[in-house]
Every structure is written in structure tokens, then in C-alpha cells.
Specification:
Elements lengths: L1 H45 L9 E6 L4 E6 H12 L6 H20 L8 E2 L11 H7 L4 H14 L3 E5 L2 E2 L4 E2 L10 H4 L23 E7 H9 L15 E6 L5 E6 L2 E4 H8 L6 E6 L2 E7 L7 E2 H9 L4 H8 L4 E4 L4
Helix pairs in contact: 2-3, 2-5, 3-5, 3-9, 3-10
Bound molecules: zinc ion.
The site of zinc ion has 6 residues, from loops.
Amino acid sequence: MKKVIIYFFSFLFICFILPALLTKLDISTSAEANENMAEENTESLSEPYTYNQYGTIKLLHADTNEVEEVALDTYLCNVVSAEMPVDFETEALKAQAIVARTYTIYKINHKKHDNADICDDSTCCQAWISKEDRLARWDGDKEAKWSKIEECVNATKGKIITYHNEPINAFFHSNSGGKTELPVDVWGGGSDMPYLQVVETAGEDGYTQYNSEVELTNEELLEKLKTTYADIQIDFNNDEDIKIVEYTSSGRVKTVKFGNHEISGTEARRLFGLKSTNFEITKEDGKIKFTVIGYGHGVGMSQTGADSMAKSGSTAEEIIQHFYVGVEIKEVNSL
Ligand SMILES: [Zn+2]
């Protein structure tokens, strides 16, 4: 009789209880696995992008001549926070992050410095500011501002701008004055960069970088010209002696006449410290006034134009497609 009872309970255990236990075990195991997967997914969003190459760059600090090795996306936070106001729209900051990443990778492939990939001098390569200095110059919630920059860089990690599958030379500037410029009219080259065209952007007149003036006395103007043109002679009473001779296709000054010399708009910009080559000249009471529109060389992405587009609802990718004609945005590891 005992044996029958044992067999009966064994039968019950094997047929019903054990499967139920195993099923329960199974469910809890897969639930745990799902949780782990969810954790892994969350982690991967905040993890840095694993660059096949370009993960670390050699950054030359121009003032100390020291070369620092730094992770690309960490470097880009310092660049974006130096190049664009943090209160600009998120999509504009994201566009700036993609542009800066592309510009950096282009510089790695087209080295300017012997011992480094890029330097921190904005007039040579690309602006850079340490986090410490950046926070010291900001007001208000500084850490929240830094987080905004980090989020914009992270949201674009791995993304660069390509033309025919090559990273582009992603020039950018502050304010185009409503119309960007061809590289040939600034540096005399650029036929190999067909993605840099004249494009129009609305809303740039709403920024402080749009309007500026430089006023010089006749003597100051002559002194500045003499630094390059020793034999300069101007008859300030003759309207023909100071005049704009030719404009570029975007409407900027291509050539301007000062007495016995005709100089380029870019040379005039450098000599007189003008914010751009989009200027008019007026003469009165022994003074010469340059009324200037826009800020920077005008080639590629306008930063205020990017912010203006973002305010109107454009995404970072749409902003980039607007300023660089015919380009694609790709994962750098896919090249
Ligand atoms: Zn440099």
C-alpha cells in the first residue's frame, strides 16, 4: 500500500508539479534576461561611440605648444561650447557637433601640423575651450549648460558629413548676412568642393552679428593701407578714388579701389578689421565709414543661420543639407 502511495505522489510530482516549477523558473529567467537587456540598451545610449579609427585625436594647444591625446567626442564638447552660444537651439548645436566632427576628421586626413591632428587656434584650425574655462565664463546653471552641450554631441555620435563617400571640408562661420559665399571668392580655390555653394537663409538679420560698422579718419585709412602698399596715394576729394569695383556672385566685395591700388575684398577686410567682405563705403567729414553685413568668411554653414532654421523647426540634418549642397550624413565607421 505504501508503495502505491509513493508511486502516486511520484506520478503527481513528475506530471504536474515539476513542469509547473520549471515553467515558473523559465518565466523568471526570461524576465531577468529582459531586464538585463533593457539595462544594456540604456547603457549603450550613454556609452561613447566606439570609433574604428579617429577615436582619439592629438590636439595641439597653440599657446603652450603641448600635444594632448583626447577622445574625439570629449574634444567636440570643448569645440562646440567654444564655437557656438549654448543658448542656441538644440538642433543648431547638434548640427555644429556634426560639422565640427567632420571638420576634425578632414583635418586628420589632411594634416596641417607635423606632431598633431588639429590645434586649438580658431584662426588656424578650430576653436577649443577647456571645460573649466568654459564654466567660469558662463552665468546661471553652468552644469546644466555643459550637459546640454554633451547631450548634443552624444546625440550625433559617429555622424559625419560626406560627399561621394568622403568626409567634406566643413567650413563654417558666424553670420552669412543672408547668403553664403563661394570658397573661390575667399581663398581663390575650392573647385574640388562643389558642396560649397551660395545658399540663402532667412532670419540672420535678427542676430547681433548681422550689423557692424568701422569708422576711420582719412589718415588712419592711409596708415593701414601703407602697411602693405607703401606707395599708396588717395585723393579724398575725388569720388572715383575710393570705390567698390566688383562684387562676388553672393554680393560681397570682390575688388575695391583705394587711389592707385585695387585690392581684394578679403584684403580690405583684413586691413581694416571688418567683420566680413559684405560692406559699403561712405565718406564724410574727413572720415571713411564701412557699413558691414554678416560676420566671417561666409563659406559653408552659418551658425546664426543654423539657429534661425532650428527656430523655424528644421532638424540638424536639414540644416546641414541646406548649407552643404548634395551631401549625405553617414556613420564614420561605415566609410
Ligand atoms: Zn591649426
